Amino acid sequence: MRNKIASPSPSALIESMRNLGYDLPSALADIIDNSITAEANQIHIDYGWNDGDPYVLIIDNGNGMSEDKLFEAMTPGKGMLEERELNDLGRFGLGLKTASWSQCKRMTAYTKHEGSIHHLTWDLDHVRNVDKWELLGKLEEYEDKILNEKLESYESGTAILWTNLDRILPRKGDNEKKKDHLYSIMIELVIPHLSMIFHRYLERKAKLEIFVGMTACSPWDPFMSNHSAGEEKTGEGYEDERIIITPYILPHSSKLTSALEKEEAEGFRGWDANQGFFVYRRNRMIISGGYFDLDLKSNASYRLCRIKVDLTNEFDLDWKVDVRKKSVIPPPEYRERLKRIAKSTMKNSSQRYVARTTSKTRLRKNQTLEEVWQRKQIGEKIQYKINSNSPGIQAITNQHNLDKKVLKQLLYIIERTIPYRSITLDNNEMEDSTMDLPQENIRPPEGLHQVALKLIRSHVDDGMSAADAIDLVTQQILPSFGAEFRVGLEDELKGEL
């Protein structure tokens, strides 16, 4: 057969490129990458309902673009294979286009550079009609007015205007609901996401400022680097320090003195989503939490474990940074290193929880800690008995109105059938074989945490602090459940104590 040219249909290919997996926050972050590369220090994201013709507008005070540079920026894949400057947050020559197309059907880039203004527009309905990669050079009257007014006071800069927002607004519902949706996602999703992704830029002395509407994004540092109770572990550097892996252990919740500090530690996505690896490419966050595919599972007791991985953009191909800059795949030679560091940091996280949970509690005057098990020496023999007066046993007895005689018989059977010899042999042959089991294998029975909650509230009513009450009850009922048990209690009592 002869060679054949298989040119894709522009309209069909663009529709495929619209579905790369961007959401609104990640699409806006991709646009902001271009602004940072253009040395902007102020970025404004404006949005409005505009009488039912809503828009999103991203404006920066960066260097702007010449006419040739604008055409290059608006051409899909242009410059993809060129070597990047170290401060360049781009890579594939697609981000501006694919991020915009994922959210709207009409996107205009309007730029001011050395006193000249240039603009080009992608209109996907037009591309579909002509089936050509054809950029429009003429603006609608209202677009020209909006863009010119916004950039009028800037010496240089670029504005990206999105209209025909077919992917941002819900398809169903009246205009009022659609308007509320636009405003709510900007406040509830976009602001927290940008505060996280660009926190290292926002923290600098000569810092970047990002505004969403009238609200300034405040940096969210996942490592709580400036907190006195946090801990930065020794990092490991590779490739002449161009790859640096640094583990952090967050402060225990008892060391966080305000509700604001606790919310900051947890992050808007929650404890489970924010444990694990945070990968940065030139200070811009790409990965926010998780353990890649290293066969490591998240656990409540590992929530203090956060690991920073710093990369330069020279390693984009090795680490398989995707177009959206939302995922990476570590190279084979780094997998075991990352897994080793993660396991060590997870262990340190769990130990911090256990140390806090099993630490000596400040008891009130005349109060003693009634352990569940009592060690008694009878002659030369050692016997272990269950203390029926311990608060945990008492609480369960009272809650279920158990007959004391029946309870005594049950406890006697348990005490007399403890397999001492098997426990001793097992631990001699296999160190700690009966201790430190995975949390999923030793979960407390359903309903037990309700007993614990009742006791905690009772201690708080008697004047004990919430932290001490939780410490006391976790020791009184099930100290071996340590971190897992305590985390569940803290989550349930959040906002109450």
Describe this structure in words.
With 497 residues, the protein is of the alpha+beta class. The protein has 3 domains: 10-216, Histidine kinase-like ATPase, C-terminal domain (Heat Shock Protein 90), CATH 3.30.565.10; 231-357, Ribosomal Protein S5, domain 2 (2-Layer Sandwich); 373-493, no CATH class. Helices cover 37% and strands 17% of the residues. It has 16 helices and 15 strands. The protein has helices at residues 10-17, 24-37, 67-74, 95-101, 124-130, 141-151, 175-197, 199-202, 259-266, 332-357, 391-399, 404-416, 420-429, 448-461, 466-477, 482-493; strands spanning 42-48, 55-60, 106-113, 116-123, 157-163, 209-212, 215-216, 231-232, 236-238, 243-249, 276-281, 284-288, 305-311, 373-378, 381-386. The strands form 3 sheets. It has a 7-stranded mixed beta sheet, with helices on both faces. Strand 14 and strand 15 form a beta hairpin. Helix 1 (10-17) packs antiparallel against helix 5, helix 14 (448-461) packs across helix 15 (466-477) and helix 15 packs across helix 16.
User: How many structural units, i.e. domains?
Assistant: 3
Task: Determine the N-to-C terminus distance.
Answer: 77 Å
CATH architecture of the largest domain: 2-Layer Sandwich
Q: What Rg is obtained from the alpha carbons, in whole angstroms? A: 30 Å
Level-1 CATH class name of the largest domain? Alpha Beta
Q: Biggest sheet, in brief?
A: 7 strands, mixed
Strand content: 15-25%
Number of strands: 15
List the quaternary state of the chains. single chain
Name the strands of the widest sheet in spatial order: 4-3-5-2-1-6-7
Q: Give the mean pLDDT.
A: 84
- Shape call: elongated
The CATH topology of the largest domain is given as Heat Shock Protein 90
Percent helix: 25-40%
CATH superfamily of the largest domain: Histidine kinase-like ATPase, C-terminal domain
Poorly predicted sequence stretches spanning 5 or more consecutive residues: 357-361, 431-437
Secondary structure tally, helices: 16
* Helix vs. strand class: alpha+beta
